[in-house]
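Last lecture ended with a question: if I hand you only a sequence, what can you say about the shape of the protein? Today we answer it with a concrete record. The protein is Metallo-beta-lactamase domain-containing protein. Below, first the input exactly as provided, then the predicted structure, then a couple of comments.
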Amino acid sequence: MQPTIERYTTNAGRRLYRLPLEVFPNFIGYAYLLVEDERTVLIDAGSVMPQSVDALREHVETVREEYGEPVSLETLSLVLITHGHIDHFSGLSVLQEEIRAPIIVHDLDIGILHDYRERLVMASKALAVFLQRAGVSEERRARLLEMYLSVKSLVTPIRGVRRLSEAGDLLGAITPIHAPGHCPGQVCLRIDDILISADHILPRTTPHLAPESITPYTGLGHYFAALETIQHAARDVRLVLGGHEEPLDDLVGRIEQIRRSHERKLERFYNLCSHPRTIAELSLEHYGKRQGYDIILALTEAGAHVEYLYQRGYLTLANVDDVEREPNPVLLYRRA
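The predicted structure:
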């Protein structure tokens, strides 16, 4: 059963509507509509998929017709994007002709909205190097890169996007908190006693992390640091609303669960490196055999944890002579 619109009220009386969208087949994400007096802010815009775009239009109409709020896409005061992943912003590719409000995103993600194809192509070059060093065969690398680039034509450039650093008074009661790791420019948004956590903190799953060697400001080190920032900046919030899954009422407890989950993974990868291993071998050992795009997710998630251990001196290279001699060899990691 599809989730329905939910209304929340902050301790200052601001109304926040959670709008469920099928951003990918059988995968629900949430946009949010913040209403106070005559001001309305759309937080995230779902995906470019027709079912997501149609649902967003319908939900805004429902908030107007059934909840009596003076809202429409055409009269929004602001659109605020939490991060540059297509299930959170690409609906604007279709809706930008209807939306006249300023569109704001963190400075580190503005290039993604301006030209998604360019950023994807550039990231694919770094991904190709990562996959080769991870020990993925040439034939399999070609298939994975084709899959990775298959969505590049879905998202057209979003015009007129502004940087979060220049937003000034446009944000009103919203306090953004930079939370990189899952995405370079991801922000969580504090609105009185409610935190919109985007994909940084979810109640049941931990967000996917890729190595910083592929995309700067991603990776486990940035993610851990952002968890610490959120814990200090929003530890007294009453409710956490994420980009996916159900609401959460114990932010500090959930942060501790997430930390322990990653610490267990780090220990597992460290122990697996009792003898020289490639990232491809470690991924298969830890996550098992995966299919489709899940192969890329498993390889890059393993890579993020190995990168963290290597950066901090827990792992070392077992074949440094090969690295010195060859242009881009497979990397073998072992415990330091």
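Comments.
1. DSSP finds eleven helices and 13 strands in the chain.
2. The chain has a mean pLDDT of 96.
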